[in-house]
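Tutorial handout. Part one gives the primary structure; part two gives the three-dimensional structure as tokens.
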Amino acid sequence: MNFAAGELWLSTTLCEPSVDPLESRISTGPLMSREFRTDIQALRGLAVLLVVLYHARIEPFGYLGVDIFFVISGFLITGLIKTQLEQSRFSFWEFYYRRAKRLLPAAYVVIALTTIAAPFFLSDVGMWEFRNQVLGALTFTGNIVLLSQSDYFGGAAETKPLLHFWSLAVEGQYYLLLPALLALTPKRWWLTGVSSLLVASAVLCFYVAFRHPSAAFYLLPTRSWELAIGSLGALLPASSRVAVKVAALRFPALGLLLLIPLGPSGLQNPVMDAALVCLATLILLLAPSRNNMAVRGMARIGDISYSLYLIHWPVLVYVRSAWLAEPPALAIYTAIAFSVVASLALYRFVEEPFRRGVVTSRVRLAPGFVAASVLLGVAPAVDIAATQSKVDFSEIRRINYGLGRACDLTPGSPPHGVPEACRTTNRPQLLVWGDSFAMALVPGLAKTVGEAGLAQLTMSGCLPAIGVAAFSRRAASPYPRAFGEDCIRFNDSVLAILKSRPEIRTVVISSPFDAPVSNDFMLLERRDGAFTEVETSEDVAAEGIKALVEAVRALGRRVVVVAPPPVASFDIADCLERKARGGVMLGRYSDCKIHVSDYRRMRSRTLELLDQVASKADVEVVSYHDYLCDDTTCKTEIDGKFLYRDSGHLSYEGSEIIARKTRLAERLIRAAR
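Part two.
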């Protein structure tokens, strides 16, 4: 299930059932003998292949492999607990001991190796985030840690080496609840209890997915329905009639598993694709496949699925980090091949010995895990201390909110006036109106506008236009249709505030102006008081911006548009920091400069839109291009000062440097009309 946000980041993850391969068995009689399920191992192999290919950007919708894994986990673990409870031999200690023995050794090896490599590939900000990721991985709270790192301004998902540990956290939390639910509840209530959990979680997931997609993606209450589907399958009473009907659905279910990850169903709610995959997985679990060559081959991949899951993501993160932008295909294929080989070694020399009890005795294992946890928990702090620079890169790259965080106004709560924190004087003569790119203008303008003063009315992601807003066509984006409606109302409120503040004489609007011409977005247009969805269009966006310009002029004010600074396909500030720290960097962007040809290609539709705005609205569009760029490249630092805090937003220092050196405030006031 994909709840990606912005970079969203959120779809680049997977999970692996934290169950022993020897638990891939079914009960087959009154003596509860157990037969190995090769087909379940094959399902694991299919799931991990889908996700690895997705993360390598070879296959488009492999993220649904995570849902396959969750169902398998719920099915196997519930079956194990059920059998042991029925035989009066269930032990909480034994259950969690086996989970630890299965999960921790391989995970700890990967965390240790990832920690050793981290200083060579991560920035200062990335290292601090990585430290929290390690703590989350060790305490099975990684999903909560990642949720806290998934806001609009947070680093992209592909920069977080332990991002994939969120799924183990979800499973670990489920395994804290499930044994207690079954052990403390009479057997006759097991099916009802798990069914109620499934329904409640699914309903909550549907509700939260559109409102808080990151929370819906990461948190147990909105993901447990997938595990509960597997649990429900394990608790269903045996029935020959039902078994025959389920067996007839085996091939359609397999078809769904193969087709939906390659191309979604087209249903607007992403939960539906996940639900179809989960139900198909359950059918295959209830109707075992024949043990043929294809099943056995895929089962071999299933054997190493946990190790491959653990290894492949950090490897891909570091490869992409070294290249700054997307690496060449050969580098990605090499990374995958390395991950497979390393997974075989991890399975052979770590997973298997610990699982079979060869490595150490039970008495020594528990304190050994505790000691290893402590060492791994402090290791990132040692890394940070050992590589600490005299330069405070975190301060340089802090989020540029303009006059303050309070000036990133909240969707759904339109302002009724200029907040005190968002103006430099009581009677400002200049208003900056727009989104996060407008915020980034403010520090420089505030330092150079003088006694005229400045006010800031900005909301992240909101295009400055009247009656038009961009929203993501991805169903669970942080910019859904509801955000588009909020954005239109926000701009109406700003216009009303402007009408009530006659001292404001000049209005500066700024934005990246990319969303209204992006194929990833749609436009919401207000017509006769109703909202209508339309495809992104330069004409519609230009008319909305023109309407804003005309509305401002109708109030007797002057207006000017500021084009976004040149942007890159990589994190400029991260590149500059790693260059200063001597990090590993490869490829054409290792000089950290913006290539004009790349920028013009990436933003061709934005540049065309701004040309239309200048012509249709008869407004001046002020650009940084002449100051920052020559014929081939654009500067990203001046006198050793970072101009950017990420791939496109100006840093505080960058905003001030550019404003002073270009006399930006004077230029904007002079250009406004």
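Part three, for discussion. The longest helix spans residues 92-121. The mean pLDDT is 89.
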